[in-house]
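Contributing new complexes? Match this layout with glyoxylic acid.
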Amino acid sequence: MQFLAGSPLLSPAARTAWAADDLAGPQDALDVMDFEEAARKALPPAHFGYMATGVDDDATLKRNHEAYQHIQLRPRRLVDVRQTDMRTELFATAWDTPIFLCPCGSQRAFHSDGELATARAARAKRNLMALSTVSTIAVEDVNREYGAPVWFQLYANSKWEIAEKLVERADAAGCPVLVWTVDLLAGSNRETQTRMRRLDDRQCTTCHGQESTSSLRRRPMFAGLDVTGASNSNPGLTWDAVDRLKKLTRMKLVIKGIETREDAQLCCERGADGIIVSNHGGRAEESGRATIECLPEVVEAVRGRIPVMVDGGIRRGTDVFKALALGAKAVGIGRPYLWGLAAFGQAGVERVIDLLRAELALVMRQCGARSIPEIGRSSVMWSDGRRG
Ligand code: GLV
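Output block (do not edit by hand):
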């Protein structure tokens, strides 16, 4: 305790020694970060590395979270907050909270039940879930487990006919929203992943095969498609693709990976139905900009025409609160629920959702916000004195 009292922040080492070491069960976790160490222990290094990696020096990955420390709360006092309401409506559907589960691929690399466990947790908590193109479970099976159609994330494949088939399949499965990821069209340099793979004494090719397209061949969403020469990268795509996608589907089209006012304006002009401000969890390019730093200019450019969501670096209910204050309509989490999944399967994901919800409810009460619309620009300020 003497050490803790002398330390301005609980250092990562102290956290490991004191809190996250050997969680006996999900209830032992005090916050979502406690699951990270548990996940590291549960997974082979190559799989943990795939989840943990950013790009280059992982600076953008770190910045995503650290930037929240530069935003401060402006709590209002003497508001009757005995009842707080976190309900959020998105595309005419009401959700209990504004927190959603981002599309994260390869979940069976983290737990044998993979996306099925995530879907069961999301169903139990009535939480919005988005499914990745590179899911390890097919969308129809996930929908069955979820009890409703999930949002479907699309990588517009280098072979456009494959993208069309994926969209048709998600449409036929009843998915209401197509989340099109545009931040990873030209490749990424994932050093942490490579370094951690080198620590793994297993042979990756035993499970993963040799060819680069083999990873698509094994994905359920690509079953029956000719993936020869196909890739999720598609560096030739331009804004015309928005129109092509919109013509293909009745689903709402949300564009994920927007970071600038210029692109936000183009999304609106081209008829997108929503935006997710995202840098792919710091796994796209090493921009050095946190998504929470990009959010205000995107919100300003959109001027309320379509919902703007954000993901990246969310680890606390206060982070969710800050993102909402800066104009996000909903806030996505990725790694935190994957840590929960890796450590404890469905129960871990449920606990992650519960922890973030409880923290958000608490900070809302303490700041005098009785409902989500009561969280606004005046609820926060930047630590350099800028207004929220
Ligand atoms: C896939 O979405 C990845 O980031 O690896």
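Reviewers usually confirm one structural detail per submission. For this one: The pocket of glyoxylic acid is lined by residues 105, 280, 283 (CB under 6 Å).
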